[in-house]
Amino acid sequence: MRTERTVAGVRAALRGPRLAERSIGLVPTMGALHEGHLSLVRRARDECDVVVVSLFVNPAQFEEAADLAAYPRDEARDADKAAAAGADILFAPPVGEVYPAGFSTTVRVAGLTEHLEGAHRGTAHFEGVATVVTKLLNMVGPDVAYFGQKDAQQAAVIRRLAADLDLPVRIATCPTVRDADGLALSSRNVHLRGADRERALALKRGLDAAAGAVAAGERDAGAIEEAGRAAMARLGVEPEYLAVVGPDDLLPVQRVDGDVLVAVAARVGPTRLIDNTILSPDGRGAA
Ligand code: AMP
């Protein structure tokens, strides 16, 4: 695996494969790689001839300077893991390569970004995500780009922007990878100390309780949300939101008549976590 730090460098590295019509897969990450990220890299390895993993902690999507400063960084470790999972190129540009002096453009996806994470983190978060992902797709020019269902709203926003901007890329969404006890893997889990690790299970318990309510025949979204919140309260965690929404438009639903996304966010100690699951009234559940 080689490491590239400039747009010119990564494009030069991909010129040969592109001319030979070899397929290129891109896995965008902010590093601190765990099995969730690596599942995306392995999927890209299975499906594409050349696998690029980007590693860029995007300042534009952090609303708190302290959160950005505390973000775990260890490029050497990430490089080893990406290589072992099958990456060919690690694209790790410095901030100045992505946002050179004079940078003035923002990509904003309306509608989808206004609820859930957008409502709680502010509109700048998804503007930062949409802008950097558009740039990474233009820098690398992949045939397929891989994202995790763990960040369901982010994946929906990226599918939308790729369609709206006619980007010549397929957006693949991959299942959430979890610890053995159900906690969704996240780079932020390293901040969970002592009893917070146990309390962090509240998000999965809330989703499981919502799934249980649907499996028991409940169709009223408010009652399903209440079941989820009650399960979280048993671990002493109050969600920022626990919402039953449409899986594509992310708008609240009143009743569960087809597939729905149940999305949850909560602070556990100082750590803000998110999780979600897709439920269907016929009893099919998802990661
Ligand atoms: P991040 O480095 O947090 O920006 O994540 C990079 C990519 O990995 C995003 O597409 C995430 O949705 C995905 N990802 C993060 N955690 C998981 C997980 N537990 N399972 C699957 N994908 C994940």
SSE inventory with pairings:
Elements: E1 2-4, H1 7-19, E2 24-29, H2 35-47, E3 50-55, H3 65-70, H4 75-85, E4 89-91, H5 95-98, H6 116-121, H7 123-140, E5 144-148, H8 152-164, E6 170-174, H9 195-199, H10 202-215, H11 221-233, E7 239-245, E8 260-268, E9 271-279
Parallel strand pairs: 1-4, 2-3, 2-5, 3-4, 5-6
Antiparallel strand pairs: 7-8, 8-9
Helix pairs in contact: 7-8, 10-11
Bound molecules: adenosine monophosphate (AMP).
- Spell out the helices and strands N to C: EHEHEHHEHHHEHEHHHEEE
Bound molecules: adenosine monophosphate
Estimate what percentage of residues fall within beta strands: 15-25%
Cα end-to-end separation: 31 Å
Which labels suit this protein?
about 290 residues; alpha/beta; six-stranded parallel beta sheet; three-stranded antiparallel beta sheet; 11 helices; 9 strands; about 40% helix; binds adenosine monophosphate
Would you kindly provide a brief summary of this structure?
By secondary structure, the protein is α/β, with parallel strands linked by helices.
Q: What this model shows, in words?
A:
This protein is α/β, with parallel strands linked by helices. 40% of the residues lie in helices and 18% in strands. The protein is built from 11 helices and 9 strands. Strands 1-4-3-2-5-6 form a 6-stranded parallel sheet, with helices on both faces. Helix 7 crosses helix 8 and helix 10 (202-215) runs antiparallel to helix 11. The longest helix has 18 residues, at 123-140. The protein starts with a strand and ends in an 8-residue tail after the last strand. The structure holds adenosine monophosphate. Adenosine monophosphate (AMP) binds at residues 29-30, 36-37, 39-40, 147-148, 150-151, 174, 176-177, 184-187.
